[in-house]
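## retry 2 of 3
previous attempt timed out at serialization; input unchanged, resubmitting
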Amino acid sequence: MVPLSVVIITFNEAANIARCLQALGDVADDVVVVDSFSTDNTVDICRQHGARVVQHAFAGYVAQKNYATTQARFDHVLQLDADEVLTDELRASIKAARANWQHAAYSLARLTNYCGHWVRHGGWYPDRKLRLYDRRLGRWTGLLLHEKFEVNAGLTTGLLAGHALHYSYHSIAQHVSQLNKFTSITAQELALRGKTNVTWFHLLLKPLWKFVHGYFFRLGLLDGFAGLCIAGISAWGVFLKFAKLKTRTEQAEA
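## retry succeeded, writing output
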């Protein structure tokens, strides 16, 4: 069985991190938390649960996760977010992969809890992410947001059974606040990529399609009020992203 490190990046995750660490059980031989100088008691909670803590100023999601990966004691790494919890089935699947490692990386499915409701439609499920990997065979990539672990060319990936329970937003206000932050970062990323041409198509039709696609075509309506909120706020996020990009571009040209 290959030795395994669990790696988690944190900033003010006192509300989540204990639940995440408690659910690890005996899945790994090493747990390291890379914290970007939390101002709550995240670090104390991590140490109480036996995790090593490394302090490192936040350098962006991609750079932070690549740095965190280097802090693992072992080459085989399970990267988790503080608001994720392993189920029994997923733990068993990870152990099976450790006992018979066959791929460069393995993906897990996330089941998201949105304001107390488990979301299974609208494009939010199964939300597969490559999280179990051999760090020698890939790296975290991306620009500012939407980071992902990418294996080296020609290598294969596998699937893990079970779920990581993702406790995303506990309130509509939290979702909207996070959306405002992420749309600003996304607008900045689009500008860096040179995609600065914003038309009425981007401001009107793309948000409308986002709602229709998520709520009707991806059956978000089956998630009830939570599905409606997700579709509506997601559509608003598309508008905000392009509105911020348009404003940013015009101010830069003025």
